[in-house]
Amino acid sequence: MSTDTNDLVVPSVHAHTGKGLGTGNPADAFVVEPARTRTRKTPRRTRTNFEMLAWLFMRLSGVVLVVLVLGHLLINLMLDGGVSRVSFAFVAGRWASPFWQGWDLLMLWLAMLHGANGMRTVINDYAEKDATRLWLKGLLGVATVFTVLLGTLVIFTFDPNI
Amino acid sequence: MPAGTLYRGREGMWSWVAHRVTGVLIFFFLFAHVLDTALVRVSPEAYDSVIATYKIPLVNLMEYGLVAAILFHALNGLRVVAVDFWAKGPKYQKQMLWTVVGIWVVLMAGSFYPVLEHTLRTWFGG
């Protein structure tokens, strides 16, 4: 064996360099790079923490939405006749109060962003072609921005005497 | 479909599947719901006519289905938060799922009459 075994003795952190695991066995000279190994080419800081922030947002908005949405269902679908009493006059009565306007505005924004981020995850999971993913996420983004802005406009410009 | 979509089965995977399916359904409803509510900016008549759709018995039944989806997504979402943030969350994830299912059954039974009252009165009077 002509290989100098001393050349193969490297710290395990350098195993991916091809110098081996340091076992002295040439068969171990080339090993699969361990997952998530930081190499010289790895940026010190990945671009942003976007995915972590998205993960955190889902949990925080989710907890707030439990209160906002279940309250919304209780009032609009269950109490005092439920859906049978919903009408323009009913909405006008609710939105006469800044409290319920604020409730609905916060619910609109949190629910749309929570839902859009969930759909983004689903698209990433199932759309395998790059172009398909891009188009679906583009469509999702346009629909989300449109819906959030429309809903916001409706809440702020509501006129009970229309 | 990607290969090997049956992960490990059992409570963990099936609750994930149900969370995903209910989430997508709720998102599509939310989209439609913001659009129908926007009709309050058109005219009281336009809004009341679309709301009349919500009062059709079949649609009222679908509202009960919507409540079912939202309740599961909400309760299981709280379980996911507990799994992620509570040190013993992963250990008790199965027990928490069955707790979620139990609370869901109770709330579904409790909301049956309030949600479907309109349909029940339409069909059976009173």
TrEMBL record, chain A:
Keyword tags: Heme, Iron, Membrane, Metal-binding, Transmembrane, Transmembrane helix
Organism superkingdom: Bacteria
Record carries keyword Metal-binding: yes
Gene3D superfamilies in the record: Fumarate reductase/succinate dehydrogenase, transmembrane subunit
GO cellular component annotations of the record: membrane
GO molecular-function terms, A-Z: metal ion binding
Chain ranges passing through the membrane: 53-75, 95-113, 134-158
Places the protein is found: Membrane
Biological classification of the source: Bacteria, Bacillati, Actinomycetota, Actinomycetes, Kitasatosporales
Protein name: Succinate dehydrogenase
Pfam families in the record: Sdh_cyt (PF01127)
Automatic annotation (TrEMBL), chain B:
Assigned keywords, A-Z: Heme, Iron, Membrane, Metal-binding, Transmembrane, Transmembrane helix
Localization of this protein: Membrane
Chief localization: membrane
Superkingdom of this protein's organism: Bacteria
SUPFAM superfamilies in alphabetical order: Fumarate reductase respiratory complex transmembrane subunits
GO MF annotations in UniProt: electron transfer activity; metal ion binding
Transmembrane feature ranges: 21-44, 64-85, 97-116
Cofactor requirement: heme
GO terms under biological process: tricarboxylic acid cycle
The keyword Membrane belongs to this UniProt entry's keyword annotation: yes
InterPro entries: SdhC_prok, SQR/QFR_C/D, Succ_DH_cytb556, SuccDH_FuR_B_TM-su
Keyword Iron: yes
Any one of the GO CC terms: membrane
Protein family (similarity comment): Belongs to the cytochrome b560 family.
Protein name (database record): Succinate dehydrogenase, cytochrome b556 subunit
Annotated source species: Kitasatospora phosalacinea
